[in-house]
Design goal:
5-stranded mixed β-barrel; alpha/beta; 11 helices
Length: 321
C-alpha cells in the first residue's frame, strides 16, 4: 500500500513533487527496501515514537519551510489507503491547489457510497472557487444519521488527506496547538542524520510533544479550511467489510481465504487461518477464524468489532487482543 501511494503520486508528475515519507524509526530499513528501485527515492523523516497526525503535519511543514520555500504546498497523505483511480485523485488535487495557494487548509472529502458509521464527515458550505467552504466537521454518526447524510448529499467522508502551504500550517499550529508546534520544531532542530540518510527526530523533544490528530488539533478549530470533493474509488480498508469490498469475489459475492467451504452462501467474507469453516445458507456475514478465536459479524456492522475489544479488556481476557 505504501508502494501504491507513491506510485499514485508518481503517475502525475505535473501535480506531485518528490515525496517525503514520515515513518517509525524502526521501519527505516524495510521502507528503504520497499522503495529502493524508485528513480528518485523519497526523503525519510523518522519518528522515534508515534505522536499522531498533528505532530506529523507540523514536522513536515517545518522541514519543508527549512528547505527554502515557506509557501511550498504539502499534501499530507495516509499511506494505507486504496484509491482505484489515480487520475481522478490527481484531478481532485488540481482543483484544490488554487485554494491552498491562497492560504486555505484544504481537506479532500470523499464522496460517500453508503451510510458508513466508521468515518467522520464534513458538511459542505458555500462554493469557494472549485472547492467548498467547510461548514462543519461531524463525528462518526449512528446508522440513522449516516443514512440522513447520504440522502442529503452535502456531506463527505473525512478521508484524512490535507493540502496546505507549509507557512500557513505553521501559523495555524503555532496559534492553535503551540505545544505541538514547539515539540515538532525542537525535534527537527535537535535531530540527527542516520547512516542511511534519514532525518531522525530528537527522541526527548518528540516524546514531550502532545499526541493529537490533525482533525482535533487544527482542522476543527481553524477558520481557514476548505473541502475538495474526491471521487476516486477510495477505501481506507479500516474494517472487515472494506476488506471484503476490496477483495476478489466469486459469482455469489463471497471472498474466501484458507480452508473454507461455502454452500449456498452469498455476500460473505470468510477467512480461516487453520480450521475448516463450512458456511451453509448464510449471507452477508464476516467470518474470521484464527488459532484461538472466531469472529462472526454481519457485514454491515463490522465497526462494532471495537465493542469486542472493549469487552475483552474489561473482562481481563487480554490474551485474545
Amino acid at each position: 500500500m505504501l508502494r501504491d501511494t507513491l506510485e499514485r503520486m508518481a503517475s502525475a508528475p505535473e501535480v506531485f513533487g518528490p515525496p517525503v515519507v514520515v515513518c517509525s524509526a524502526s521501519h527505516e530499513t524495510v521502507v528503504r527496501e520497499q522503495l529502493a528501485d524508485l528513480d528518485h527515492p523519497p526523503h525519510l523523516i523518522l519518528e522515534p515514537m508515534g505522536r499522531n497526525t498533528a505532530a506529523c503535519a507540523a514536522v513536515v511543514a517545518y522541514w519543508a519551510a527549512a528547505q527554502g520555500d515557506p509557501a511550498h504546498l504539502i499534501l499530507l497523505a495516509p499511506a494505507d489507503h486504496l484509491v482505484s483511480s489515480a487520475a481522478a485523485f490527481a484531478q481532485a488535487l488540481k482543483r484544490a491547489v488554487p485554494a491552498a495557494r491562497e492560504g486555505r487548509l484544504v481537506s479532500l472529502g470523499v464522496r460517500p457510497t453508503h451510510p458508513e458509521t466508521g468515518y467522520g464527515y464534513i458538511r459542505l458550505g458555500e462554493p469557494y472557487g472549485d472547492v467548498f467552504e467547510a461548514a462543519q466537521f461531524v463525528e462518526k454518526p449512528d446508522r440513522e444519521t449516516a443514512e440522513r447524510y447520504l440522502a442529503h448529499g452535502g456531506y463527505l467522508w473525512n478521508g484524512g488527506y490535507f493540502l496546505f502551504r507549509a507557512d500557513r500550517m505553521i501559523e495555524e499550529i503555532e496559534r492553535l496547538a503551540p505545544d505541538i508546534a514547539a515539540g515538532a520544531r525542537a525535534a527537527i532542530d535537535r535531530g540527527s542524520i542516520t547512516d542511511a540518510g534519514g532525518l531522525l527526530l530528537d527522541a526527548a523533544s518528540f516524546a514531550a510533544t502532545p499526541s493529537d490528530s490533525i482533525d482535533y488539533a487544527i482542522m476543527e478549530k481553524t477558520d481557514r479550511i476548505a473541502v475538495a470533493p474526491l471521487d476516486a474509488g477510495w477505501s481506507d480498508v479500516g474494517s472487515w467489510a472494506s476488506v471484503w469490498d476490496a477483495s476478489q469475489k466469486d459469482t455469489d459475492g463471497n471472498a474466501a481465504f484458507g480452508h473454507v467451504m461455502a454452500i449456498g452462501a452469498s455476500g460473505c467474507f470468510i477467512r480461516s487461518e487453520g480450521p475448516l469453516i463450512a458456511a451453509v445458507g448464510v449471507k452477508d456475514l464476516i467470518i474470521i477464524a484464527t488459532d484461538d478465536a472466531i469472529l462472526i459479524v454481519p457485514r454491515g456492522e463490522t465497526q462494532d468489532v471495537k465493542k469486542v475489544v472493549t469487552r475483552l479488556t474489561e473482562t481481563n481476557l487480554r490474551e485474545f487482543l
